[in-house]
Amino acid sequence: MTISNEWIPIVQVRDASIATKWLGKAIEVRGWVRTRRDSKGGFSFLEINDGSSFGNLQVVAPNALANYESDVLNLSVGSSVIIKGVLKESPGEGQSFEMEATAIQVTGHADPQTYPLQKKRHTFEKLREWAHLRPRTNTFGAVTRVRNRLSYSTHQFFQDEGFFYIHTPIITASDCEGAGQMFRVTTLPLDKLPIKEGKVDSSQDFFGKPAFLTVSGQLEGEVYACAMGKIYTFGPTFRAENSNTTRHLAEFWMIEPEAAFYELPDNMALAERYLKRMIRDCLQDCAEDMEFFDKMIQPGVVETLQLVLDKPFEHMSYTKAVEVLLASGQKFEYPVHWGADLQSEHERYLTETYIKGPVILYDYPAAIKSFYMRINDDQKTVRAMDVLVPGVGEIIGGSQREERLDVLLERMAANGLKEEDYWWYLDLRRFGSVPHAGFGLGLERMVQYVTGMVNIRDVIPFPRTPGNAEF
Ligand code: 4AD
Ligand code: MG
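A: This is the predicted complex of the input protein with magnesium ion.
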């Protein structure tokens, strides 16, 4: 059999509105066997999945096939096949069309004695050990398609709104968030570090100074916003946080829009439009995957997301949120008081119990937020905003930026940041300074929110967490 390049994705074969044109005609599909069932009537049923859709294509393989005994009867879960056949209306339940095979070529068998993904269900913990095989399961196929749709929506949304996609560096010398969670990048010999005056001599390092993996593209994003007007970044970010939670990764993907002449309310409205666009696209274009999440992962998730689309997001100041938490009568592990950082138990109470939906908190105490956020006239709070959603907590963090040079210099000094390290960032305030604002959305947290997947390790292909960088 020669390999043509005219095979059809199963998602199209399963879509009656597309596939009708192939009815009665010879077509070819390619994929992996999910199940095989042999019938006494002299044929076998194969369920084939090629990743293009949640559902499989049913293929009927008659024993008249030349390699029926030698190949078809040996097909096991995970084998890869190229199948030519005729598309027919299916008499069976559960599918409109099926394929009657005229030729089956096995490109790779999968030994049932050793192939880990047998029909029995595996826990997500177990599947993490098989991160190279788990995309072949229903759940991870669905997560992968949803993650793809969210990424695609991101580009569509920002492009439609006139934002330019820019690439910010992955290696950087400046700490955007100032939280001391950066991974060091070095080519210095770790067993023989050059020492000068009792300290590592970084002038001998690759970049001539200490360098790190970025925690955020924001500062460089601001540079471009202050020239292009509206920009967004979409790239990997790295944080050496030693927190083993279901919502933290050491490597995650962040989308960061930044817009000149935006103030906090513009920023909030942008975040709301963006989140709603992604939800709408997912419900519409990943309907079959979303039905699966609704049935097997988080009952009710589809209806909940639908409701989110219909209502404006609630807004609440940090100060009000603290009052609500104090009046809640709830016993929290971390006590609440004005000035304290909100913990995930507080965020979840606010979104899940009090608001029962997404909420945008704003005007946080300056002391718990980053140096670049614009200080309010009360001198105590900054123009920060966090978007919190049920099940996940913080999904977006953002702010209006401090555009006044003198105020920014004061804030940097108070945070122990050196002017000379940020000279270019400060120049944005020296030359044609503008009010501007932006935010960061954690892509993995968005996937969690939309799918209901509990653990962030299960919504990124190869999770990096403390003690784990396999694959
Ligand atoms: O709130 P964060 O730290 O904000 C920033 O980095 C700003 N520079 C963004 C900006 O204004 N341009 O992070 C933004 C989002 C969080 O809301 C969360 O969704 C996600 O990034 N995030 C993480 N996701 C997974 N693992 C981690 N360790 C994360 N840390 C933050
Ligand atoms: Mg944050």
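The chain has two domains: 10-108, 134-164+258-458. The longest strand covers residues 26-39.
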